[in-house]
Amino acid sequence: MREAAALTPPSREQALDLLRQMLLIRRLEEKAVELYTVGKIRGFLHLYIGEEAVAVGVMPALGPEDNVVATYREHGQALARGVPAGAVMAEMYGKANGCSRGRGGSMHLFDVARRFWGGHAIVGGGLPVAVGLALGDALQSRAAVTACFFGDGAVAEGEFHESLNLAALWRLPVLFVCENNLYAMGTALARHQAQTDIVRKAEAQGVPGEAVDGMDVLAVRAAAQRAVDAVRGGGGPRLLEARTYRFRAHSMYDPEFYREKAEVERWKQRDPIALFSAWLLERAWLDDAARERLEASVAAEIDGAVAEAEAGPWEPVADLLRDVYTPAEDR
Ligand SMILES: Cc1ncc(C[n+]2csc(CCOP(=O)(O)OP(=O)(O)O)c2C)c(N)n1
Ligand SMILES: [Mg+2]
Predict the structure, then answer these.
(1) Distance (Å) from CA 116 to ligand 2 centroid
(2) Which of 124, 136, 35, 143 has the alpha carbon at shortest distance from 71?
(3) What letters, b where the CB count within 10 A reaches 16 and e where it falls short, cover 1-39?
(4) Pairing mode, if any, of strands 146-151 and 67-69?
(5) From ligand 1's centre to the CA of 152, what distance in Å?
(6) Under DSSP, is residue 174 helix (H, G, I), strand (E, B) or coil?
(7) Which end of the chain is more exposed for a tag (fewer CB within 10 A), N or C?
(8) Residue 82 to residue 21: CA distance in whole angstroms
(9) Dist CA 146 CA 172 (whole Å)
């Protein structure tokens, strides 16, 4: 674990909660794979496995008044923000008790009460939404920070540059979190960018940035707290580049011809859950029995989530055009 993390050490209770959240994300996604295989979950399903320390490390810096915007790989952000596992699972099933009433699926988790504004399928699509939320807050003198998660692939989009530029120009309270997992589908960053240093790119738009080890939950937590403190203090936007890795395929179907198995295995040696468990064991904040109890409680939460999804209703056919923009005469 990096030294920076020691600047703001968590209490034992906070630390165990970080581990619990990472485990909940991992086990819920492992369950989702099973359910996908038997056809209970359909459509696209992008797993966050390997990247859990990023969402879980950033979220403690935010309060209930703050906003969160994410991508299609957002189960982790939703759970870490407090969207109940049952509402996430039911949404993946497409059931009406899902957090987006079954209309969004895995890629479009929303929860207005928790100010969780998606879930966006368009690469880079969340960035202008985040800037708009922050502009709205600034105009209404609402003291809130908007955290916006996006992948390394999004830096190739014009929206990345336009959004950072406007946020810097208007000193908007946005924390841009780039989850750099080295690939955009099968394309490595160096194959589509002349400048691969994402912090430099942000700085070119007037947004100060910092790179952090995205496999180290405490390092992410400390860096996020520093960045959010600066944003909240009126310093304008900040960017955090979390260097991370997805252990699974891009989505459910991906032959993974673009990376070597040895590379994946190397990154798995730095599994954020294993690293943090070791840190906790070293401090005697965790032992085997406590770890087993934690796993059992996470498993029970996931069983409950699946039961909620199974029991949930489908939206009635008569309601299918509700909230869909169609000219009145066509209804
Ligand atoms: C504007 C746009 N272009 C292309 C796609 C197809 N697409 C879906 S995911 C993806 C890769 C994005 O990679 P990255 O931003 O690094 O996120 P990651 O999947 O690695 O989390 C692409 C190109 C899309 N959804 N939107
Ligand atoms: Mg990526």
Answers:
(1) 21
(2) 124
(3) beebbeeeebeeeebbebbbbbbbbbbbbebbeebbeee
(4) parallel
(5) 9
(6) strand
(7) C
(8) 10
(9) 9
Buried b / exposed e over 219-244, threshold 16 CB at 10 Å, is bbbbbbbbbbebbbeeebbbbbbbbb
Judged by DSSP in three states, 30 sits in helix
Per-residue pLDDT tens over the stretch 12-54? 999 999 999 999 999 999 999 999 999 999 999 999 999 999 9
* Ligand 1 atom at minimum distance from 124 CA: 1
Q: Indicate the pTM of the whole model.
A: 0.96
pLDDT of residue 322: 86
Closest-CA residue, ligand 1 atom 5, reads 123
Give the Å distances, CA to CA, from 184 to 73, 241, 261.
12, 15, 17
Atom number of ligand 1 nearest to Cα 123: 26
Asked if 43 and 100 touch (Cβ cutoff 8 Å), the reply is no
248 lines ligand 1 (CB under 6 A): no
As residues whose CB is below 5 A from the ion ligand 2, the structure lists 151-152, 181, 184
Please tell me if the CB atom of residue 236 comes closer than 6 angstroms to any atom of ligand 1.
no
- Asked if pLDDT for residue 331 goes beyond 80, the answer is no
- Token pair 């209970």 in the structure block, residue: 40
CA of 245 to the centre of ligand 2 (A): 8
Assigned token pair, 200: 């430099």
Ligand 1 binding pocket includes 181 (Cβ within 6 Å): yes
**Which residue type does 63 have?**
G
Return the ligand number nearest the Cα of 76.
1
Residue whose structure tokens are 């879980």: 56
The per-residue pLDDT for 330 is: 59
pLDDT for residue 4 is more than 50: no
User: What is the number of the ligand closest to the CA of 72?
Assistant: 1
Decide which of 52 and 9 is more confident: 52
Q: Which atom of ligand 1 is nearest to the CA of 180?
A: 16
